[in-house]
Amino acid sequence: MKKLVLFFSMLMCSVALSSSSLPLDTVDYVDLDRYLGKWYEIARFDQSFQKGCTAVEANYSLRKDGDIKVINTCRVGSPDGEYKEAEARAWVVDEETNAKLKVQFFLRGIKLPIFAGNYWILELDEDYQYAMVGDKSRKYLWILSRTKELDEKIYLELVAKAKDLHFDVSKLLKTQQ
């Protein structure tokens, strides 16, 4: 019985300390006008909806209703591979910082938070030249840059920060450009 109690106690401790239960801070403030535009994906946690994607770009623009239009593109298999495009709608959920957004690819005509994923800006260069995006579950992580290549020193600093934030950085996949 003692072994069983010890096992369940350890299990509960591990659940309580899981990374998704840890707090996750975003940047203090995002000027959305400066954030809009083209971003190149430098690295990501691979997801089923991005399998095989290379040369990944995200383009953000303002919609007439004040939300953000998202156009994600990639090439499948290689930078010369088949072109894929996905459109989404994003909106701010934390108006104090503008650093927490929801992104919805399905039924974009209306906001349906149940179909939207979290997009939390965790790191942002003061000149808006690179960013790191993820969410509290720590299942999603992207490193983005305004240019196709990011200085290796900056990349390693972002990876170190992600590790400090309890992301499993061994899952990071560098994006082929």
Automatic annotation (TrEMBL):
Q: Which CDD domains has this protein been placed in?
A: lipocalin_Blc-like
Q: Name one Pfam family in it.
A: Lipocalin_2
KW Signal (keyword) present = yes
The signal peptide stretch is 1-18
Note the InterPro entries from the entry. Calycin, Lipocalin_ApoD, Lipocalin_bac, Lipocalin_Blc-like_dom, Lipocalin_CS, Lipocln_cytosolic_FA-bd_dom
Q: Which UniProt keywords apply?
A: Signal
Q: Where is the Lipocalin/cytosolic fatty-acid binding domain?
A: 30-177
Similarity section: Belongs to the calycin superfamily. Lipocalin family.
What PANTHER family does the record point to? APOLIPOPROTEIN D (PTHR10612)
The name this protein carries in UniProt is Lipocalin/cytosolic fatty-acid binding domain-containing protein
Origin organism is: Halobacteriovorax vibrionivorans
